[in-house]
């Protein structure tokens, strides 16, 4: 089971809590650390390494060695990732997509993106939840994903309940589900008898894009899934079952889950000011960061100059490091200056605010343009 001890941290596809110890998580989940050797091997093909790899934001994998062996034999892989459209997207949701887009360019790979409106409907805690609500969020979130810059000729969107997507996926999900027992679903996901039966079936849908391209191409194609590590349990199950259906196990590249703006929590729709939403206005961003973002600064100016700040707990620094400041020299200087007390919290927050505002302005412009492109990305059999 993906849960750690109660006083520790919890990482499951449905719940992320506490301060995650990623070395412990690698042991609990039974994944492999992303070693310098493997990174160097990737670099041979990509020339540069994305800063999320250089900085350890992507930190763990399953079967990446096998995937690179295949690639070096001339057997190209496709990429698969996804989004559970529970509402509008925040900046954390974008991390795997930005990284996947880089992988697409670096390896010239096809990308499959799944939007799981069925999942969000089945797992909604709302008594009268409507599937249509989540289908609409899927269509909305798809624009944010297009805005990341994927190549329309090489990128295919699946919306689970969309008739065309469902038409291609359902037969395969059924075959998968015949191999997935209720006791495995209970053991891996912690379900009980009071969970609806759709939840027990759901992993079968999330597994399908990992082998659908093999079916469409009429030959087995290696698959690489970049994802936040909370999604690993679905693919642990998929990796057990796919060889039984005649397909290779997908390789995985796991990303860390970056915390929200408030102390020790995640970005959450139910906690105001915890998240930067992709639709935020400049004013909202400024207010959130200046007034609410958790700071590693000291309580007085004098103390800060003397003792220095703590970048390791500072939300602004953490988000610059994970997403908004790709330049290694600049991020190192910010770290040094903040840690030594030379840089003040207000200066760090201003720097962060300007980066976020500039990013969102660009993103929102591209999102507008994406409205005309959506049809090009939708899967058509
Ligand atoms: P969802 O919508 O919860 O999240 C989408 C992707 O974003 C990652 N993520 C984060 N990464 C870094 N920091 C954060 N704070 C953060 N929050 C979320 C998630 O791990 C995920 O990769 N069931 C899935 C949808 C899905 C999927 C997939 C995801 C379907 N097929 C294949 C990955 C790969 C979901 O609800 O993701």
What attributes does this structure have?
381 residues, alpha/beta, seven-stranded mixed beta sheet, two-stranded antiparallel sheet, 52% helix, binds tryptophanyl-5'AMP
Neighbour order of strands in the largest sheet: 3-4-9-8-5-6-7
SSE string: EEHEHHEHEHEHHEHHHHEHEHHHHHH
Estimate the helix proportion, in percent: 40-55%
Main sheet overview: 7 strands, mixed
What gyration radius follows from the Cα positions, in whole Å?
Answer: 21 Å
Name the structural class: alpha/beta
| Bound ligand species | tryptophanyl-5'AMP
Oligomer: single chain
Shape type: globular
Give a brief description:
This protein is an alpha/beta fold. It contains 18 helices and 9 strands.
Give a verbal description of the structure.
With 381 residues, this protein is an alpha/beta fold. It has 18 helices and 9 strands. The strands form 2 sheets. A 7-stranded mixed β-sheet has the order 3-4-9-8-5-6-7, sandwiched between helices. A hairpin with a 4-residue loop joins strand 1 and strand 2. It is globular, with a radius of gyration of 21 Å. The mean pLDDT is 96. The site of tryptophanyl-5'AMP has 24 residues, from strand 5, helix 5 and strand 8.
Fold blueprint:
Blueprint: E1 10-11, E2 16-17, H1 22-29, E3 32-33, H2 36-46, H3 51-54, E4 58-62, H4 64-72, E5 78-83, H5 91-107, E6 111-115, H6 117-122, H7 131-147, E7 155-159, H8 163-177, H9 182-189, H10 197-207, H11 212-217, E8 223-228, H12 232-245, E9 251-255, H13 282-292, H14 301-307, H15 315-324, H16 328-340, H17 345-370, H18 374-377
Parallel strand pairs: 5-6, 5-8, 6-7, 8-9
Antiparallel strand pairs: 1-2, 3-4, 4-9
Helix pairs in contact: 7-17, 8-10, 10-12, 13-17, 15-17
Tryptophanyl-5'AMP is lined by residues 13, 80-84, 92-93, 95-96, 114, 116, 119, 206, 225, 227-228, 230-231, 255, 257-258, 266-267.
């Amino acid at each position: 089971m993906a849960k750690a001890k109660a006083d520790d941290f919890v990482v499951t596809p449905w719940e992320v809590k506490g301060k995650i110890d990623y070395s412990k998580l690698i042991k609990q989940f039974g994944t492999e650390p992303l070693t310098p050797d493997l990174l160097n091997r990737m670099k041979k093909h990509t020339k540069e390494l994305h800063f999320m790899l250089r900085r350890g934001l992507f930190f763990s994998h399953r079967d990446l060695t096998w995937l690179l062996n295949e690639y070096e034999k001339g057997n190209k892989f496709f990429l698969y990732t996804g989004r559970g459209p529970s509402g509008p997207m925040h900046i954390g949701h974008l991390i795997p997509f930005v990284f996947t887009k880089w992988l697409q360019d670096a390896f010239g790979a096809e990308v499959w993106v799944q939007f799981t409106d069925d999942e969000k409907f089945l797992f909604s805690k709302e008594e009268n939840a409507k599937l249509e609500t989540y289908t609409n969020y899927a269509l909305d979130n798809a624009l944010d994903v297009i805005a990341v810059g994927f190549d329309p000729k090489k990128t295919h969107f699946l919306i689970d309940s969309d008739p065309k997507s469902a038409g291609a996926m359902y037969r395969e999900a059924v075959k998968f589900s015949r191999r997935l027992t209720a006791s495995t679903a209970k053991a891996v996901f912690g379900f009980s008898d009071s969970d609806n039966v759709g939840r027990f079936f759901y992993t079968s849908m999330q597994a399908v894009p990992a082998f659908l391209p093999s079916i469409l191409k009429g030959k087995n194609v290696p698959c690489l899934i970049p994802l936040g590590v909370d999604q690993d349990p679905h693919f642990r199950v998929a990796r057990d079952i796919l060889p039984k259906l005649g397909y290779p196990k997908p390789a995985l590249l796991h990303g860390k889950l970056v915390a929200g703006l408030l102390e020790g929590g995640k970005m959450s729709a139910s906690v105001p000011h915890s998240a930067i939403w992709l639709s935020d206005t400049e004013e909202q961003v400024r207010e959130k960061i200046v007034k609410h973002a958790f700071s590693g600064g000291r309580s007085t100016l004098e103390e800060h100059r003397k003792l220095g700040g703590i970048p390791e707990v500072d939300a602004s620094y953490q988000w610059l490091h994970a997403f908004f400041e790709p330049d290694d020299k600049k991020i190192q200087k910010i770290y040094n200056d903040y840690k030594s007390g030379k840089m003040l919290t207000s200066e760090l927050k201003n720097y962060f605010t300007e980066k976020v505002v500039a990013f969102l302005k660009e993103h929102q412009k591209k999102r507008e343009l994406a409205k005309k492109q959506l049809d090009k990305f939708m899967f058509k059999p």
